[in-house]
Amino acid sequence: MNGIFDVKTLTDGQFDVVYNVLSFGFACMLATTIYLYISTGRVLPKYRQAITISGTVTLIALYHYWRIFDSFVAAESEGSFNEAYRYVDWLLTVPLLLLEAVAVLALPAVNRKSLISKLVPASALMIVLGYPGEISDMTSTKLIWGGLSTIPFLYILYVLFVELGKSLEKQPPEVAASIGRLRILLIATWGVYPISYLLPVLGFTGPDAFVGRQIGYTVADVLAKCLFGLTIYKIAKLKSAQDSPEYAKAEIGE
Predict the structure, then answer these.
(1) pLDDT tens digits, one per residue of 137-152
(2) CA atoms of 123 and 154, how far apart (whole Å)
């Protein structure tokens, strides 16, 4: 397969489903990017980096969804659709997602650098190890590379729930609760990716597997990037209100 799918094998209904799903993903990334960049000035300066990173994540995804959509439409006549665009996107955006989660807490430099040095390389390794299985038609290859990709994923979970969890003890209760929900959101959305990845192993092949992957990957992207970014913005507002009574009165009305 080599990362290429022949779109000409899709029925008209299947083509329309993928077309609309990719269009939905593009629209969500566009709207969220605009909103986050406009909202950057509505939090205190030390939390603006997290919002800027969030907007950058959706901006990168916006570009790649444009490329994915363009590739899919062109493939109606040319036949070939390249799945590699998604992995290029994830290689850039997944480390940034974890970076924004750390940045919004405004932790001491030592703690921040320690978390980033663990999360960012592990997330990049997770994506790189998953790609050979994505482009393979062989079940054994998918399982081997999927299993290898799971190792850094489990390490990321350990860092998020054990090491980052220690940092939450010093956070305001509402912020700690929001970060807790953010971690659950990350796990829930990341859980969609391996399910979509393993559709061929689960008996879904050809066009059905392709359509299922596009739906699963797009829904997971919207949740993991758009909803995640908006939650980061909410946490930044809560942290700003905690730090500044003037901000709380002006922005939240407290």
Answers:
(1) 788 888 899 899 999 9
(2) 10
CA dihedral (99, 104, 105, 107) in degrees, to 10, reads 60
One-letter identity of residue 10: L
Q: E strand or H helix at 39, and its extent?
A: helix 12-39
Partners of 81 in the β-ladder: 5
Q: What is the rounded CA–CA span in Å between residue 164 and residue 112?
A: 10
Quote the CA–CA distance of 7 and 20 in Å, as a whole number.
15
55-60: long-range pairs with CB below 8 Å, 24+ = 55/229, 56/96, 57/93, 57/96, 57/97, 57/100, 57/225, 57/229, 58/29, 58/32, 58/33, 58/225, 58/226, 58/229, 59/29, 59/33, 60/89, 60/92, 60/93, 60/96
Nearest in space to 189 (alpha carbons), one of 93, 120, 104 = 93
What sign results for the dihedral spanned by CA atoms 74, 79, 80, 85? Answer: positive
Model pLDDT for residues 120-178, shown as the tens digit of each residue: 999 999 999 988 887 777 888 888 998 999 999 899 988 888 877 777 777 778 888 88
- What lies within 8 Å, CB to CB, of 194 at 6+ separation is 146, 150
CATH superfamily of the domain spanning 4-241:
Rhodopsin 7-helix transmembrane proteins (1.20.1070.10)
Question: 1 falls in which pLDDT band (50, 70, 90)?
Answer: very low
What does the domain layout of the chain look like in residue ranges? Answer: 4-241
Predicted TM-score (pTM) of this structure: 0.87
What are the residues facing 6 on neighbouring strands? 80
3-state class (DSSP) for residue 171: coil
